[in-house]
Amino acid sequence: MHTSIALWGHPRSLSTALERSFIERGDFKVFHEAFSYVYFMHEERTTLPHQNPDPDHPRTYRAVRDMMERARLERPVFHKDFPYHAIDHLMRDPDYLLGQVNTFLIRDPEEAVLSHANVHPDVTPATLGYAEQARLFDFIRELTGETPLVVNAADLADDPKGTIAGFCAHAGIPLVPAAISWSAGSRPEWSTWEGWHADVIGSSGIGKPSRKYRFSYADKPHLRDYVAHCRPFYEHLDQYRISPVKEAAE
Predict the structure, then answer these.
(1) Domain 4-249 is of which CATH architecture?
(2) Are 166 and 247 in contact (CB under 8 A)?
(3) What is the pTM of this model?
(4) What's the rounded Cα separation, in Å, for the pair 109 and 130?
(5) pLDDT tens digits for 58-102?
(6) Where are the domains of the chain?
(7) What does the pLDDT read at residue 213?
(8) Is the N end or the C end of the chain the one with fewer CB atoms within 10 Å?
(9) Does 184 have pLDDT greater than 90?
(10) Which stretches of 53-212 are assigned E, i.e. beta strand?
């Protein structure tokens, strides 16, 4: 069975941009938030705007997991998701977690919460995802006895090549420098949640977010409470962030 790399992020963490580089590589089968079907379409925990679900997509945890595991029989798999989509299922399935390379991507909630609100003005704490991300990180760390790979979105934006080089080194895969850039446009992997990915659809590589927001914290002061809620979880993971590989910038 081939390698599977899981990227566990939270909304607005630049995770789709990192995923896009794996699409560009061409050597991985890429799954985009496949477990979102468990949370939003099967269990119907809450709703989000800008969704266009595929009626043929698996919707239970086991069916989604098995779909991705079958893909590993043919080629390596990269799947990007948010732990809150299936946190209780994941923690009851340690063998699945042990069978893959688990990586984490974090972004300062000061930036991520406001970015989230500008796509989903009625955002609630339930879909911010920081608490569940930290919970899964701690579970995997205890399960494996090793600290999972953590990337900070600020490093990814400032030094894409060096950060992805560090990611690849920790994940045990070769760096593909040509995959750091791509042709702008949408991807079929994003069809369910395409409305959330305007920035990366319009991009030709990883860079600093535009921050052209319709709302500010002054407009929605309650979002400051959300930032305060997320910050301890963010800081917990941030202490383990890797540094970009300096040589990769040469």
Answers:
(1) 3-Layer(aba) Sandwich (3.40)
(2) no
(3) 0.91
(4) 9
(5) 989 999 999 999 999 999 999 999 999 999 999 999 999 999 999
(6) 4-249
(7) 83
(8) C
(9) no
(10) 77-81, 101-106, 149-152
**Total residues found in the chain within this entry:** 250
Tokens matching residue 44? 């119907």
Distance, CA of 129 to CA of 67 (rounded, Å): 24
Q: Which structure tokens are listed for 67?
A: 């779909």
Residue 196 has pLDDT above 60, yes or no: no
Beta strands at 29-32 and 101-106: parallel, antiparallel or unpaired: unpaired
SS3 state at 174: coil
Tokens (6 digits) for 247: 């040589």
DSSP string spanning the chain?
A: ---EEEEE--TTSSHHHHHHHHHHHSSSEEEESTTHIIIIIIS-----SS----TTS--SHHHHHHHHHHHTTTS-EEEEE-GGGTHHHHHT-HHHHHTSEEEEEE--HHHHHHHHHHH-TT--GGGT-HHHHHHHHHHHHHHHSSPPEEEEHHHHHH-HHHHHHHHHHHHT----GGGGB---S--GGGGGGGGG-HHHHT-SB--------S--TTT-TTHHHHHHHHHHHHHHHHTTBPPP-GGGG-
Query: How far apart are alpha carbons 183 and 50 in whole angstroms?
Result: 23
Q: Are strands 4-8 and 29-32 parallel, antiparallel or unpaired?
A: unpaired
List the beta bridge partners of residue 149. Answer: 103
